[in-house]
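hey so i finaly got around to running the thing on Flavodoxin family protein from Corallococcus praedator. pasting the sequence first so u can double check i didnt mess up the copy paste, my clipboard has been acting weird all day
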Amino acid sequence: MKTLIVYAHPEPRSLNGALKDLAVRHLSAQGHEVRVPDLYAMGWKANADGADFLDHDAGERLFYERASKTAFTHGSQSPDIVAEQEKLLWADAVLFQFPMWWFSMPAILKGWVDRVFAFGFAYGVGVHEGERWGDRYGEGSLMGRRAMLSVTIGGRAPHYSDRGVNGALDDVLFPIQHGVLFYPGMDVLPPFTAYQSDRLKAEQWSSIAEAFKARLDGLFTDDPLPFRRQNGGHYDAQQVLKPDLGQGTSGTRIHLVQRGEPEQLPVPAPSRPEP
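ok and heres what it spat out for the 3d tokens, dont ask me to read them lol
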């Protein structure tokens, strides 16, 4: 199998660097092909602007979304964007290795998403009609691929619990796991996390390494998070969860299929105008 490790940390000797190196060794030893875009080492351009489109006239007002669609359709995207899109299409699984900074990913990784997930590539695909709002949230161009976040966190685990001051971790990561990865169709595995990353002692590394290797062993077999598919009949024509679903839970968890709920519900056929 083929694994892409998108790595975003400025220091190779960091815990993130050690986890990235461990993943490369462990997956390669199992016979998997591995590629690693090291965003800092690459000097990845994080800002999305008109330079992303080879045919953009600098004298014209930039509508980034429109320009992205045109460039993707006409093959005039910046070569660095195309190269990363090709890596994503090559991969069977994508591992994102990064530190949590201000409750999200580092800016360089966000810039990678902003530029690589272009209109027509990761969004804006599929038919929009009736209750169907395109191919997204469980469908799309990246269907058939798995994704997992490997995140180092400075805080303590209780801080990221349901009643923790920072909010539950699945809520904090929801915009990334659901909004960035599930949106274009990837199956998202529960994240691997290492807490108090700036206070770890050398003797703690072995337990973290063993836990990480166990998660890597399940990269292609573990069950993904059971996010509801947008076009699975769970949402109404306004993309609001139907009232009989998600009972007994709240927050972002209502977008997970609950025990006893079907993964797929009947979807009404789009109405056709009278001839």
